[in-house]
Write a structure and sequence with these properties.
With 301 residues, the chain is α/β, with parallel strands linked by helices. The chain is built from 10 helices and 9 strands. The protein binds N-carbamoyl-L-aspartate.
């Protein structure tokens, strides 16, 4: 396979290999970050046609720690804002002969489209509402830092599932391991059909019921930039779908609270929960670098 376009097309063994390789790139406490020369002399192009902080920066750090040269192109500073078509921009990037192109784009399917036009492997860093494979991999790495296995876990994913590429990639990944996945959110943000994404998925509209006995609670941001169907006020949304401290007692005692970021405190998650000892939100960010090192090492030419 060339590149990493999504989690759906991967075999469970691919996921396992990436997750176990990324352990080698994790930084033990008080130790210098692991470095490698695996991509010495190689060029990684980081093409971000949509806003990003965590993902863009962690791909940059990951490439540097592997010894690669990396250039980052963002929409506002590139010819895309001068009206150049996506194919022309990418052909230009392709002419630089990169060994991998990391790409984020607002259109679902954009990386798949480009991978058919370009020789360089494409690593999807988030395409529209479709997939965000490295986020699901770093989420799985974070869960496995605290649990023996992904099998038989009960995972509640709460919020704007319909517009979330993070949810979709996580559903595909967790489903390959037989996890029980409970999706929770209001109907406009979680249509009934979403239970068909993968085996093991169910829908629960009530937050307390969704998190009952959960090993993991994944909270999602309301993707205001992608949705036009509903108009909850922040207060209303938080009242019905926000995660509050009192909810945690319904889940397993050692429940992990996750969020891909950026978080909106007081909208989808209470500050006391985001900052609680159950929250692994910053561990997710930290694992982003290790997992992206494993991904760049595996998929670069
Ligand atoms: C997510 C994304 O961009 O899909 N963020 C991220 O990559 N950490 C989720 C979001 O924007 O809400």
């Amino acid at each position: 396979m060339t590149g990493l376009l999504g989690i759906e097309p991967l075999e469970r063994s691919d996921v396992e290999e990436i997750l176990s390789r990324s352990v080698q790139f994790q930084t033990p406490r008080n130790e210098a970050s692991p470095r490698s020369e695996a991509l010495r002399g190689k060029l990684v192009v980081n093409a971000f046609f949509e806003n990003s902080t965590r993902t863009r920066v962690s791909f940059e750090i990951a490439a540097k720690r592997l010894g690669a040269d990396i250039v980052t192109i963002t929409t506002s500073g590139s010819s895309v804002s001068k009206g150049e078509s996506l194919v022309d921009t990418l052909n230009t990037l392709g002419a630089m002969r990169p060994h991998a192109i990391v790409m984020r784009h607002a259109a679902s399917g954009a990386p798949q489209f480009l991978s058919r036009h370009l020789a360089a492997p494409i690593i999807n860093a988030g395409d529209g509402t479709h997939e965000h494979p490295t986020q699901a991999l770093l989420d799985a790495r974070t869960i496995l830092d605290h649990r023996e296995s992904l099998e038989k876990l009960r995972v509640a994913i709460i919020g704007d599932i319909a517009h979330s590429r993070v949810a979709r990639s996580n559903i595909h990944l967790l489903s390959k391991f037989g996890a029980e996945i409970v999706l929770c959110g209001p109907t406009p943000l979680l249509p009934e059909t979403m239970r068909e994404i993968a085996p093991g998925v169910s829908i629960e509209r009530d937050v307390p019921r969704a998190i009952e006995g959960a090993d993991v609670i994944m909270m999602l941001r309301v993707q205001l930039e992608r949705q036009h169907e509903s108009n909850f006020s922040a207060t209303e949304y938080f009242q019905f779908y926000g995660l509050r401290l009192e909810h945690l007692s319904l889940a397993k005692e050692n429940v992990l609270v996750m969020h891909p970021g950026p978080i909106n405190r007081g909208r989808e998650i209470a500050s006391e929960v985001a900052d609680s000892t159950r929250s692994v939100i910053l561990n997710q960010v930290e694992n982003g670098v290790a997992v992206r090192m494993a991904v760049l090492e595996r998929f670069s030419r």
